Amino acid sequence: MSASLEKGVRVLKEVIDAPIASYFSSCVHCGLCAEACLFYTETGDPKYTPIHKLEPLRRVYEQEYTLLGRVAKWLHISKPITDAELAEWQELVYNSCTLCGRCSVVCPVGNDIVYMVRKLREGMSASGNAPEGIKGAANRTVTIGSPMGVRLPAVKAQMKHVEEDYGIPIPLDVEGAEYMVMLSSMEIINFPEYLGAIAKIMRQAGKTWTLCSTAFEATNAGMQIGNSDLAKVIVSRIVEGAERLKVKTVISPECGHAYTALRWEGANLVGRPFTFQVKHIIEVLGEFQEQGLLKTEGMETDRLTFHDPCQLARRGGVIQQQRSLMKMIAKDFVEMPDAGFMNWCCGGGGGASAIEEGEELRLEAFKRKKAQLEAVKPDRLVTACANCRIVLEEGLEHYQMDIPVIGLTETIAEHIPEKGA
Amino acid sequence: MNEMQFLTWVRGPGLDIALSLFVLGVLWRLIEIYSLGRKKDLSAPRHKPGASGWHTIARRSVPPEGMFKTSPVSYVGGYVFHIGLAIIIFLFIPHIKLIESLVGVSWPGLPSQVVDLVTVVTLAAMIVLLADRIMKPTKRYLSGFQDWFTWTLTFLPVLTGWLAVQHLLLPYTTMLALHILTAELLLVFIPFTKLFHAFTVFGSRWFNGAVNGHKGVPV
Amino acid sequence: MTLERIPIRVEADDLPMSGNAPAVLREIGELLHRLAEEGVGGAIDLRSLPFLPGDRVWLEERLGCGEVEISLQAGGLSTFSETRFPGVWWVVHRNPQGAVVSEQVEVTRVPDIIVADPNDVRNGLANLNDLISGLS
Amino acid sequence: MTMNKNAKLLENLEWQGVSRRTFLKYCATLASLMALPPSAGRAMAEALAQAKRPSVIWLPFQECTGCTESITRSHSPSIEGMIFDMISLDYQETLMAAAGHQAEEALHKAMQDNMGKYVLIIDGSVATGLDGAYSCIAGRTNLEALREAAQGAAAIIALGSCAAYGGIPKAKPNPTGAVAVSDIIKDKPIVNIPGCPPIPVVITGVLAHYLTFGSLPELDKLGRPKAFYGETIHDRCYRRPFYDQGKFAKSFDDEGARKGWCLFELGCKGPVTYNACASVKWNGGASWPVEAGHGCLGCSEPDFWDAGGFYKALSMPADPLKMTAGAALAGAVAGVAITVANRAKKGAAKAAHETTTLADLEK
Predict the structure, then answer these.
(1) CA of D357 to nearest chain A CA: how many angstroms apart?
(2) Chain D residues in contact with B12 (beta carbon < 8 A)
(3) N or C: which terminus of chain B has fewer CB atoms within 10 Å of its end residue's CB?
(4) Residues of chain D whose C-beta is under 8 A from some C-beta in B?
(5) Which residue in chain B is spatially nearest to D300 when comparing CA positions?
(6) CATH number of residue C34's parent domain
(7) Which chains touch D (3 or more CB pairs under 8 A)?
(8) Are D286 and D183 in contact (CB under 8 A)?
C-alpha cells in the first residue's frame, strides 16, 4: 500500500460515522437515485448511479467497521482498496458529481448520498486522487487567496472602477460594520456589477457594510476537493476577518459552494460556533424586502425564469426569497419544470466546472437544463450563483441557445432608483 | 427424518435457533452501526431542528416530486410488495397466534381469503420487481449475489406459506415445515444482508431528515 | 341405536364440493357401457374417494331411485338400492352395531352377494332334507 | 367347543354357522377399508376360504395393554371370531388361561412347532437401558425374548406406537432407553401398525392380506400399510370444509366448537398424521376423536408425545424459546465488543491525523 493510499484509507476511517454505516446498511440497490442524477439521466450509463459512486467508501466501511467485514479482511477473502481503483473512481466521485444532492432527497430508505460523496472526497483528495483542475483551484486559493488567482490589488482596482461607475464609496476594513460582504473571484473578474449592486442596495437600506482586505474571497476549493484541512485554512481567514472587524453578519456572495462552506461547514471546520451570522445575499435581500428596506421601480417585461443553485435551495433551504424578489421586478416570471427544491443542477457545481477533462460529460448533462429551458422558453435566465452562471453560459453557447444569463442581485439593483431621483 | 420430525424440528429447535440468531444479529448490528456516532453540528441551525428527522421517516414513504413517473414499476411494485408483506406477516391469523404465543400480544387479523388474495398479489409484485431488476440497466448493474439471494430469501416463505395453505405441490406437513424453515432462514439472514434496511431505514431517514431540518430544508 | 344419529353436522349453507362427483358419474357411465356391451360391470368405492358432503348429495340426486330395494341381514344390515339407471346399484354395508362400514356404487345386473352360493344351496338342501325327513 | 386346528378357515366358519354372504360382506368391507378395488373382496373371500390359520405369537413388552384392549374391542369381525377363526393365537399372556411356567412352555412349544412360519406380534417398546433390565418377563429381558422370537418368525407386526417407534416409553428423557422393534430386528419383514392404540381393523386387514396374497401389504417409508396410513386424518376429516373456509374453534366451549368447526387452532395434528380414524372410526364405528370434539393428537406418528404439546396449533412454536434471552445478551456483547474495537480504530485514525497540505494532494 502506497503512503498516499494509506493516508486516504486512514482519512476514510476517520470520517466514517453512524449515518454512513446506517446508509450503507439500508441501501437495497433499487436504483432510484440514478433517476435523480443528471449524469445518469442524460447518459443512461448505469455507472453514474449515485450509490455506485460510493463503492470504495462502502468497502472501507465494511472491511474496517463491521465484524463480518473485519473477519473477511483478516481471512483475506475481501478485496482491498487499491490505488488504481481510487484513480478509476475519480471520474465518478468528481467529474460526474456536483454534490447537487438530488439523490439524497429521493432515496426511499433515506440515504444522504451526497453526504457520503463529500466524505469519500476526503479520502480521495488525501490519497492524491483528486482531479488536476480542482487541485489547481485549491492550490491557488490557499497560496494566493482565490481560486482564480485574484489578489487584493485586483480587488482594489475593481472597487475603484465601481466607485467611479456608481458614485458610491466602497468601504474596506470598516470595523463594526453590520455586514461583511464576501465576493467570489468570478464576481471580481467577470461580474463587477455585483459589487455595484451591493453598494446600491446597502445605501437604500441604510445599512453599514464593508469588504475585508484579508478575506474577500468566499469560494472554498478545499471544500470542493473535499479536504477539511484545506477548507479550514480558507474558511479561517473569513472567520478571522469577520471577528477582527466585529461584523454582525457575513454575506455569502452569489456562489453556491461558498455559501455551504461558510454557512453549514464553516463552524464545523474551525471547530467552534461562529460569533457572527452567515447569510446568502439572497437571504439578506429577502429580509430587506420583508422589512420594506428594498424598494424597486419598473418591471422587466421580457420572459424571465430562475435557476435555483443547488447549494442555495435544496442544500441550503433558501427557496422562497428568490421567488418573491423575482416577482418584485418581473412581469412575466415563469418557473421551469422541477424548479425550486427539486431543480436540476447546471452540471458544474461541486468543483466539476474546474475539471477540464469533464467538459464533454458536463455538456452532455447540460441537456437536462436545456430541456427545462425549452419547456418554458425564457428570454433571459436569472440565477444567484456565479458558478452556475458561467456553466449555464457555456452550455447555452454550446447548444446555440440565445438566452442571456444574469445575476439576481444585479437585476434587483438595476431597479433601485438613483439616490435623489 | 420424516415430515413430522422435520416439522417438529423447525417449529421447535429450528425456530429457537433462528429467532436467537435473529435477535443476536439485530442487536449486534444495531449497536455496531449506531455506536460509530457522529460529530455534533456546530453551525447555527436555520430553525430549531424540531422533529424533522421524524418527519422524514414518514415523508420518505411518498415518492418525491416527479420521481413516480421515472420509475413507476419500482414504486408500485415496492408499495404492493411491502404493504403485502406487512399484511401477510402481521394480519394473517396464524401469524398473530404465533406472535401471541411468543410475546403475549395479539390483535385482530384479516379473513384468510383476504390474506390469500394479498399473498397472490404480493408474489406477483415480487416477480415483477425481479423482472425489473433483470431488465432495468441500473438495477442490473447494481445487483450482486446478495440482491438475488435476498430476493429468494424473501420470496420463498411467501410462496411456501401460500402453497401450504392452498395444499398445493407437497403434502401440507412438508410444505408447512418448508414454510417455517424458509421463514427461519429469512430471519437468520436479515441482520447480515441488505434486508437489515427493515431496521436501519428508520435511522437513515432520521439522520437525513435531521441534517436537512437543521438547514431548514424539508426532505 | 347408532351414535351416527348424533354427529355434529356441517352447517355450511352450500355443501362444499370437491368437484370429483361429475368424474365419478362419468366413470359409472363407462362401467354401465361395459356391462351393456360385455356383460362385465364393476364397482366404485365411495369411501375411498376424496368426497365432500356436497359431492355425495350431488351424486345421489343425479342417480335417483329405481325400482329395486334389497336389504340383507348378514353380520349387520346391508342395503342394495337400484338407481334410476338399471344395473347401477347404491350399496351400503353396515356392521352389527349399525355403523356404515362400506359404501359403493356397484354396476352389475344383480349384486353378487344376493345370489345364493351353490355351496349354501347344497347346505340348505341338506338342512331342508333333514327337516323333511323329520316330518315322517 | 372343539375345532380342527388344521381345518380351512371357511369350514370353521361354516361350523360356527357363519353364512357365505356374511363372510363375503366382511371381505368386501375389509377390501374397501384397505383401498383395494371392490372386486378384491371376492378374491379375498375365495383365498381366505381356503387359507390355513397361521400361528400367531404375541409378546407384550413395555406397554400399557391399551393395544390389547383395542384389539379385543375389534368389531369387525369380533375378536373371538378373528382370533379363533382366522389365526391360531398360540401365545398371548393377557388373554391366555395359562400362567407361569405353563405359559412359558406354551410359548416355546408354539415357536418350535411353527418354526419359520409364525407371525410375531409385538406390542410395547423394547427397553435397552441397563442391557434391557428395565423390562423382564420370566427372568428374561424383552430384548432377549425379542431376538429369540424373531429368529423363527415369518414376519413381525409391531403393534402400536411403542412397538413401531418407541412410543411413550421413549418420550424425553427416555429413562429406559426404549426403542422400536425395527431398531433391534433388521433381518425380518416388519409391519408397523402405529397408533396409541392402533385401529383394530388394521391388524385384521394386514392378516387378511397376508393370508390372501401370501405377502405383507405395501408399506410406506415408516413401515406402515399404505392402505390405512396412505392419507392424513386431515385429508379425510369431515370438518375439513371448515378448515378450507377458515372457520376455526378457538376454545373447546365457544360458538365454533359447538358448530363443529375445525380444531386446527386447538392443536389438532390431523394435517400431519397419517391414519384411518376419519374413515374407519372407533368403537364399532360410533365416533372418533375429532367427531367427539377433540383434535387429533397425532398418536400414529413418531415421537408424538414430544411434538410440542397437544393443544398448540401446528403453526405455533413447539418449544418455549430457550436460547433467545441468551442470544440477545450475546448480540449485545458482540455489539459492544465491536463498538470498543471500532472506537479504538477510529480513535487511532484520528490520532494519526496529519494536517493535509497542498503537497498531500499529489500521490
Answers:
(1) 7
(2) 308, 317-319
(3) N
(4) 221-222, 232, 234, 246, 265, 271-273, 298, 301-304, 306-308, 312-319, 321-324, 326-328, 330-332, 334-336, 338-339, 342-343, 346
(5) B4
(6) 3.30.1370.140
(7) A, B, C
(8) no
- The SS3 assignment for B46 reads coil
Q: b/e string for C65-77 if b means 16 or more Cβ within 10 A?
A: ebeeeeebebbbe
**Which backbone phi and psi does D180 adopt, to 5 degrees?**
-85, 160
- pLDDT score of C69: 93
Query: Would you call D356 and A230 a contact, using CB atoms and an 8 Å cutoff?
Result: yes
Which domain, by its residues, includes C92? 3-133
Q: Are strands D178-179 and D126-127 parallel, antiparallel or unpaired?
A: antiparallel
Distance from C-alpha of A77 to C-alpha of D9, rounded to nearest angstrom: 77
Measured CA to CA in angstroms, residue D20 lies from B56, D23, D85 at distances of 86, 5, 14
Confidence of residue C75 (pLDDT cuts 50, 70, 90): confident
Among D184, D180, D122, D120, which Cα is nearest to D152's? Answer: D120
Choose among A181, A159, A172: nearest CA to A409: A181
Specify the CATH number for A296-414; select among 3.40.50, 1.10.3470, 1.10.443, 3.40.1350: 3.40.50
Are B142 and A31 within 8 A, CB to CB? yes
What is the location of CATH 1.10.1060 in chain A? 3-129
Which positions 307-366 of A are in contact with B (Cβ < 8 Å)? 314-317, 337-338, 341-342
Phi and psi dihedrals of B66, rounded to 5? 80, -15
Asked if residue A269 lies in contact with residue A243, where contact means CB atoms within 8 angstroms, the answer is no
Contact residues for A243 (Cβ-Cβ < 8 A; gap 6+):
A275, A276
> Which chains pack against B, by 3+ Cβ pairs within 8 A?
A, D
- Specify the domain boundaries for CATH 3.40.50 within chain A: 135-288, 296-414
| pLDDT tens per residue across span A93-112 | 999 999 999 999 999 999 99
CATH topology of domain A135-288: Rossmann fold (3.40.50)
What the block records as the C-alpha cell of B126 is 415480487
Half-sphere exposure of D97 (CA within 13 A, CB side): 0
Question: Would the CB atoms of D321 and B19 count as touching at under 8 Å?
Answer: yes
Q: Which domains does chain D have, with CATH numbers?
A: 52-212 (3.40.50.700), 231-342 (4.10.480.10)
Q: Which residue of D has its CA nearest to A134?
A: D361
- The full DSSP string for A367-400 is HHHHHHHHHH--SEEEES-HHHHHHHHHHHHHTT
B32 near D339, Cβ under 8 Å?
yes
Length of chain A: 421
Residue whose cell numbers read 357363519: D18
**Residue B100, pLDDT score:** 85
pLDDT number for residue D79: 47
Which residues of D fall below an 8 Å CB-CB distance to A? 334, 338, 341-342, 345-346, 349-350, 352-358, 360-363
User: Among A1, A2, A6, A7, which would you mutate to test the D interface (most chain D Cβ atoms within 10 Å of its Cβ)?
Assistant: A7
Convert the pLDDT of each residue in D137-162 to its tens digit. 888 999 999 999 999 999 999 999 99
Contact assessment for residue D228 and residue D218, using Cβ atoms and an 8 Å cutoff: no
Per-residue pLDDT tens for C1-60?
454 555 555 444 566 676 778 889 999 999 999 999 998 888 888 876 767 677 888 898
Residues of chain A with pLDDT under 70: 419-421
What the block records as the C-alpha cell of B99 is 406472535
Beta carbons of B8 and D315 less than 8 Å apart: no
Complex ipTM over 0.85:
no
D96 band by pLDDT with thresholds 50, 70 and 90: confident
pLDDT value at residue C3: 46
For residue B78, list chain A residues with Cβ-Cβ distance below 8 A. Answer: 30, 108
Domain A3-129 indexed as CATH 1.10.10: no
